[in-house]
């Protein structure tokens, strides 16, 4: 976590440093993130960055946590006592589009750390994300199993892995489709996006085995 000196900075300066670190870690391999480049863009001395943070790892974990907080704020609006797993997945797709549009680098960073982290701290990050972003979904799966909304013969851990991996994969697919067309992901045709999401939900509910 940042040192006390970082939190003593004016809010605007803290935000500039945080946003710049998120952008660099989201768009470059960990080894290629040069703190001197970050400090130059933020108009602070490179040495000052190490007054604010212990080291590069500290900076990395800080911005991952800040990005996770933002996306969890969205999930925090759901009533998990009433919502079904399928309703949650559908709503999360809708809210993800808003999140990507408003926080593109935060989304890119979370996707990167969740699936193809290239830092020396992959195992630590996976454990961090598990405790920060996965517990609420796991609990929702268990609740849905207990009330008979989803199958109980499959472990909640496996269902969690499947939903997280496939939903991130679908979002990544949309991003690649947009790039091929020279678009931002949120500019893809809404009817195409909605149909694809509905097809995904159908697969999630019914499976792919031909009955």
UniProtKB/TrEMBL annotation:
The organism's place on the tree of life at top rank: Bacteria
DNA-binding region: 34-53
Domain HTH tetR-type residues, every copy: 11-71
Gene3D superfamilies the UniProt entry points to: Tetracycline Repressor, domain 2 (1.10.357.10)
Keyword DNA-binding recorded: yes
UniProt-listed SUPFAM superfamilies: Homeodomain-like, Tetracyclin repressor-like, C-terminal domain
InterPro entries, A to Z: Homeodomain-like_sf, HTH-type_Tx_Regulator, HTH_TetR, Tet_transcr_reg_TetR-rel_C_sf
Keywords on record: DNA-binding
Leader sequence residues: none
Molecular function GO labels: DNA binding
Keyword DNA-binding recorded: yes
PANTHER family (UniProt xref): ACREF/ENVCD OPERON REPRESSOR-RELATED (PTHR43479), ACREF_ENVCD OPERON REPRESSOR-RELATED (PTHR43479:SF11)
Protein name: TetR/AcrR family transcriptional regulator
């Amino acid at each position: 976590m940042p040192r006390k000196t970082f939190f003593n900075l004016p809010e605007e300066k803290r935000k500039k440093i945080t946003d710049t670190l998120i952008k660099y870690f989201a768009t470059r391999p960990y080894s290629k993130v040069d703190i001197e480049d970050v400090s130059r863009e933020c108009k602070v001395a490179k040495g000052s960055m190490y007054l604010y943070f212990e080291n590069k790892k500290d900076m990395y974990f800080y911005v991952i946590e800040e990005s996770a907080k933002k996306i969890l704020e969205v999930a925090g609006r759901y009533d998990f006592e009433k919502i079904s797993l399928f309703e949650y997945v559908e709503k999360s797709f809708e809210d993800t589009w808003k999140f990507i549009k408003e926080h593109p680098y935060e989304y890119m960073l979370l996707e990167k750390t969740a699936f193809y982290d290239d830092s020396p701290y992959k195992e630590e990050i996976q454990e961090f994300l598990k405790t920060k972003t996965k517990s609420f979904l796991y609990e929702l799966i268990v609740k849905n199993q207990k009330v008979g909304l989803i199958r109980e013969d499959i472990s909640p851990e496996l269902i969690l892995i499947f939903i997280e991996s496939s939903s991130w994969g679908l979002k990544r697919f949309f991003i690649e489709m947009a790039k091929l067309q020279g678009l931002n992901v949120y500019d893809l045709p809404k009817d195409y996006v909605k149909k694809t999401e509905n097809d995904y939900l159908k697969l999630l509910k019914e499976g792919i085995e031909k009955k």
